[in-house]
């Protein structure tokens, strides 16, 4: 059975979101929200290469005492190779539990 192209993209997207969750587990998030905005970027250069567009809200005690740049770096490090293959754009909002 062949899925319609849109359905195939949704299945792939769900798999990428789950993979993001798994990678970010290393940061022991107290809250994690991932929004896939890839459908809004169809035809965009990065979308053609297969990389998706995502928004991320993450709350972790591991961000305590870290600058915004350090927090983003921690997220990028946790995602590793996904930033080169599965993710084209990632908007990050990273908070400590005290900031929520």
The portion of residues forming beta strands comes to: 15-25%
What is the CATH level 1 assignment? Alpha Beta
How many structurally independent domains? 1
Helical run tally: 4
Cα(first) to Cα(last) distance is 46 Å
Number of strands: 3
Sum up the structure in keywords.
single chain, 100 residues, alpha+beta, GMP Synthetase, Chain A, domain 3, three-stranded mixed sheet, 4 helices, 3 strands, 23% strand, globular, disordered N terminus
Describe this structure in words.
It is a single chain. By secondary structure, the chain is α+β, with helices and mostly antiparallel strands. It has a single domain, classed as GMP Synthetase, Chain A, domain 3. The chain has helices at residues 5-24, 45-48, 68-79, 82-85; strands at residues 31-36, 52-59, 87-95. Strands 1-2-3 form a 3-stranded mixed beta sheet. The radius of gyration is 14 Å and the shape is globular. It starts with a helix and ends in a 5-residue tail after the last strand.
List the helices and strands and how they pair.
Layout: H1 5-24, E1 31-36, H2 45-48, E2 52-59, H3 68-79, H4 82-85, E3 87-95
Short description:
The protein is built from four helices and three strands, in the order αβαβααβ.
